[in-house]
Amino acid sequence: MRTLKNILVTGGCGFIGVNFIRRLFKHTPEFTGRIINLDALTYAGNITSLQEIEKEFGIDSKPESRYFFELGDICDRQGLETIFAKYNIDTVVNFAAESHVDRSILGPETFVKTNVMGTFALLDVARRRWQISTGDPTQPLPVSADAEYTPGVIFHHVSTDEVYGSLGESGFFTETSPYEPRSPYSASKAASDHLVMAWHHTYGLPVTLSNCSNNFGPFQFPEKLIPLMIINMLEGKPLPVYGDGKNIRDWLYVDDHTRAIWTILSKGRTGEKYNIGGENERENIAIIDELIEIVAEKINGEPQKIRGTIQFVKDRPGHDRRYAIDCAKIKEELGWQRETPFEEGLAKTVEWYMANTTWINRIRSGEYRYWVEENYGRR
Ligand code: NAD
Ligand code: TDX
């Protein structure tokens, strides 16, 4: 078991990052280290999602503080160098990314910048800080697959099942499935995965990599299918279904994903990649149908009336038909398995969005960005 002391979490103000940080502080007693959350606070980053953690564990940056926030971009090498030195970083968990497929189709450039160049910058700075050099520190580091690193350091990269492309009616993605990305988003994530593995094979950097299926749960930005549908149902707005609605995704409750990442960090083998999935395939239209039933029951409404707001719209270009994950490796090797049944996760998610209208309204009004402006000037 690795003991992780100073974890640099990138993109910690996004959906999965927030859930990960909350899990570590609230539900992982064996974690006694510090988290340094580096986030550029793009449209998807919401600092207010971690207010409670900041209050309890940030304690105004006193010596006993265990939570720190750094506003910055993972592409900024100088900034990364400073953070590595300031906090003596021994672990990186790289969540930071542009994550929405539709946005990648409209504007791919930031995807290449953050997902590819950002991951490159992080890898390179981690290598520079962690590789033990017996030579002249002003000279370039010796290149070797057997290079020595500070004991215990680990670089974990969070990736997606979308790198494997689209499945037909049968079959599953395994860790050895060929990469066949088809959207600008998945192509940029695939590139980042290749860089991570290259840094391991060429320079010996201790890395782990995970490819996860579709997550859902609290704090997800309402551009993604499940929160978008819940909010639109609650507000009586149309429910836009792409194409015929029969595209299949493998859904995983976010808590199960963050627990899998913690498991890999603690005991995953370096140089290995692990698939994480919910073994829970659903057609989009079936998910929407389940959500309609849950929402109708909770608001005392008529499912049929909500169903009437479904609108089949133009399909997403290059829309992958089916994803399905074989996660036997993480189950057998590391003992992880999904715990939250899909229906339970879905009900909890609906309840969360119903109870957190302030969070939703802040996103709508952009109010969560005031904090950035007040503290760092207008961006
Ligand atoms: P998200 O879009 O909700 O959050 C991304 C976060 O990264 C935001 O806080 C944003 O401000 C930050 N960020 C963006 N660019 C940055 C930059 N240049 N420097 C620093 N911070 C930056 O994403 P998410 O859904 O939480 O996904 C997190 C990671 O998990 C991503 O790498 C994504 O590819 C991967 N993933 C997501 C899912 C899913 O279903 N959401 C599934 C598999 C893998
Ligand atoms: O309004 C919608 N209508 C619709 O039919 C939206 C937003 C989506 N969809 C469909 C497209 C997909 O088939 O629902 C499915 C899920 O769409 P998204 O929520 O956009 O997720 P997806 O494109 O599958 O990608 C997600 O899972 C893998 C995350 O956004 C990625 O970051 C992750 O890597």
Question: What are the salient characteristics of this protein?
Answer:
379 residues, Rossmann fold, three-stranded mixed sheet, binds thymidine-5'-diphospho-beta-D-xylose, binds nicotinamide-adenine-dinucleotide, 14 helices, globular
List the helices and strands and how they pair.
Elements: E1 6-10, H1 15-27, E2 34-39, H2 51-58, E3 67-71, H3 77-87, E4 91-94, H4 101-106, H5 109-130, E5 154-160, H6 184-203, E6 207-212, E7 214-216, H7 225-235, E8 239-242, E9 248-253, H8 254-267, E10 272-276, E11 281-283, H9 284-299, H10 303-307, E12 310-313, H11 328-334, H12 342-355, H13 357-365, H14 370-376
Parallel strand pairs: 1-2, 1-4, 2-3, 4-5, 5-6, 6-10, 7-9, 8-12
Antiparallel strand pairs: 9-11
Q: Give the helix level as a range of percent.
A: 40-55%
Report the portion of residues in β strands: 15-25%
Number of strands: 12
Rg calculated over all Cα atoms: 21 Å
Largest sheet: spatial strand order: 3-2-1-4-5-6-10
CATH fourth-tier homologous superfamily: NAD(P)-binding Rossmann-like Domain
Q: Return the CATH class.
A: Alpha Beta
Mean pLDDT: 95
And the CATH topology?
Rossmann fold
Enumerate the spans where pLDDT stays under 50 for 5 or more consecutive residues: none
